[in-house]
Write a structure and sequence with these properties.
4-stranded mixed beta sheet, single chain, 587 residues, alpha+beta, 14% strand
């Protein structure tokens, strides 16, 4: 370097120094000197500021160090596993579980072992068994756990997420329960816990989240209960490759399992159906006939459970669909079997009490039959309600829905109430009939111009049989909303009423004698002292003569009315034709 270059560099540095000195003088003149003068003139304020500064500086180490009660202290964390890999993050429950799952999917179980607390194992076994335990735990998680990542805390102290349904003042935790699994009649937890190596009081700890010691201890037991079955050992590795949510062999196994289960259900139904032909009495035949469908459902669910429990063990996504389906299938089968058993028993008792003919039952028999129908409806409601609650409790749906379900319950209730207003109204009306019994099964009623017999009362409708063997299906709510005549409310007796319109010259005494003699000989008339005749209407054009007689029941009354009217008309036509009504014209 030449002398001129050196002089040039020195000159530049001198200029920079002059500029820095000038800038420093300006800062001193504009900021530092006025601030110093202000503090000197206000010694009390300067003292307060110094105290605050000391307090802040003293509090910084305390703020940087968390409460030691938020983790479990241990002498060492898996010392035999070596340094923690870079792709293993143990700072919070969510990232620790995510690291374990990601490493398990790639097959790197040696790195996944760093997410386990192996402190209960001797140091020479930690490295050897860590990868094996990690592989077994990964298999259990894949087959049995449905991980809801949004619910797993992402904070280092495991505080619940600040969502719409989160707690107002969430508290830090050092344990987080992922799931509880049942095996051999006992419940075992899969849990993450926070650990830190013990440090002196003046040093900050570095806590990490690991699968707890109890979880690691129970891995072998849970793997025996939920791990791969013997059949899966013969599946080629190429078939274990994932295609979508399932492994390739599972896409083949599921249709085969479905076919086998369907065949088992069909075979069970056929075998139970054969018992109908082998049974000699009617009760046994009906029992076999009604038990075919429920037993086939239960057998199909049991076969599927056995196949999936002892031969193959499917992965988590498949179990998430199949397990609820099998539980619901079994519940439906048992519920249907219970309902049909109770229904068959009540039907047998009813037929034994009343027989097969319900045309002319007594009042006590109608009361009994209606009570049986009410008992059926109550048992149906209880069974269906119990089945629904059982299914919901099996899958902990109430806990999963949580406050969200409660928050939306009002809106959902309004929507369901509007949508099912007609159905719910009919069901309530049906229960009203069952309790108050304004109409009973077997009652003779006059409904909208038709004489009917009440054949059945269901939850939403009533079935009526008219005198000409037609069937009227009437919604229960509509039936109770309008008046109807119940001829069987107190007793079956019914007054026969016959109207004849005759000429005013007709003699009522002669017709009365004829009616009394005809009524006393008619087999459908009772209470012969209660037979009478009277003129109920009269005008210049004619008069109406009404004849009354008592019959034991509506059906007999209708037949007696037809016969008596025919005899009276024949009597007037042959003996006194001049008594027929005539139209008179005044000239």
């Amino acid at each position: 370097m030449s002398g001129d270059d050196l002089l040039q560099i020195v000159g530049k540095r001198k200029n920079h120094a002059d500029k820095a000195e000038e800038s420093g003088l300006k800062m001193h003149r504009l900021v530092i000197k006025p601030l110093a003068n202000f503090l000197c003139s206000n010694r009390r304020l300067m003292l307060i500021g110094a105290c605050l500064t000391v307090a802040i500086l003293a509090g910084l180490p305390l703020a940087a160090q968390e409460d030691p009660a938020l983790w479990y202290e241990t002498e060492a964390i898996n010392p035999s596993l070596g340094a923690q890999p870079e792709d293993v993050d143990l700072s919070s429950p969510r990232v620790a579980l995510r690291s374990f799952v990601d490493l398990a999917e790639t097959g790197d179980y040696d790195a996944a072992a760093h997410v386990l607390n192996l402190s209960h194992l001797p140091e020479d076994e930690q490295n050897a068994r860590g990868a094996q335990i990690a592989a077994k735990l990964a298999s259990i998680i894949d087959r049995k756990l449905r991980i809801n990542w949004s619910r797993i805390p992402a904070e280092a102290d495991a505080r619940p997420s600040q969502g719409a349904n989160a707690e107002k003042n969430p508290q830090p935790r050092r344990d987080y329960l992922i799931e509880e699994l049942e095996a051999n009649g006992q419940v075992y937890a899969i849990r993450l816990s926070r650990y830190a190596v013990a440090t002196p009081d003046d040093e900050a700890a570095d806590p990490v989240w690991l699968f707890s010691r109890d979880t690691v201890d129970n891995v072998d037991l849970l793997y025996e209960a939920y791990g791969p079955r013997a059949f899966e050992a013969h599946i080629p590795d190429a078939m274990k490759a994932r295609m979508g949510w399932l492994q390739l062999w599972e896409w083949i196994a599921l249709p085969l399992v479905a076919v086998i289960v369907a065949l088992v259900g069909l075979l069970t139904s056929k075998l139970v159906g054969l018992g109908r032909h082998l049974s000699e009495n009617r009760v046994g035949s009906r029992a076999f006939e009604r038990a075919a469908l429920p037993l086939s459902l239960v057998a199909a669910a049991a076969a599927a459970h056995w196949l999936l429990g002892f031969i193959v063990s499917l992965s988590g996504p498949a179990n998430a669909v199949i397990t609820p389906t099998l539980v619901m299938l079994a519940v439906v089968g048992f519920s249907l079997a219970a309902l049909r058993a109770v229904d068959a028993l009540l039907d047998h008792v009813t037929r034994r009490q009343l027989g097969d003919n319900y045309d002319t039952p007594t009042s006590s028999e109608r009361e009994f039959y209606t009570t049986m129908y009410a008992v059926r409806r109550v048992i149906l409601v209880i069974t269906v309600g119990f089945s629904i609650v059982f299914v919901l409790l099996q899958f902990d749906i109430f806990a999963d829905m949580g406050i969200t379900l409660l928050a939306s319950a009002g809106v959902l209730t309004v929507i369901l109430g509007i949508a099912g207003q007609s159905t719910l109204g009919n069901m309530v009306a049906s229960l009203q009939i069952a309790i108050a019994k304004p109409v009973r099964i077997g009652d003779n009623i006059h409904y909208e111009g038709d004489w009917c017999v009440v054949e059945a009362i269901f939850f939403t409708f009533i079935r009526l049989r008219t005198w000409d063997e037609r069937r009227l299906i009437v919604p229960v709510k509509y039936f109770l909303s309008y008046p109807f005549k119940n001829w069987s409310m107190l007793n079956e007796r019914l007054m026969v009423t016959i109207h004849l319109v005759l000429d005013p010259m007709a003699e009522a005494a002669v017709l009365r004698e004829k009616f009394i003699s005809s009524a006393k000989t008619d087999p459908g008339v009772i209470e012969h002292d209660n037979i009478w005749t009277c003129i109920t209407d009269h005008s210049a054009q004619g008069m109406t003569i009404t004849f009354y007689a008592m019959a034991p029941d509506p059906m007999t009354a209708w037949s007696a009315e037809m016969r008596l009217r025919e005899e009276l008309v024949e009597f007037v036509r042959t003996q006194h034709p001049e008594w027929w009504w005539r139209e008179r014209i005044e000239l």
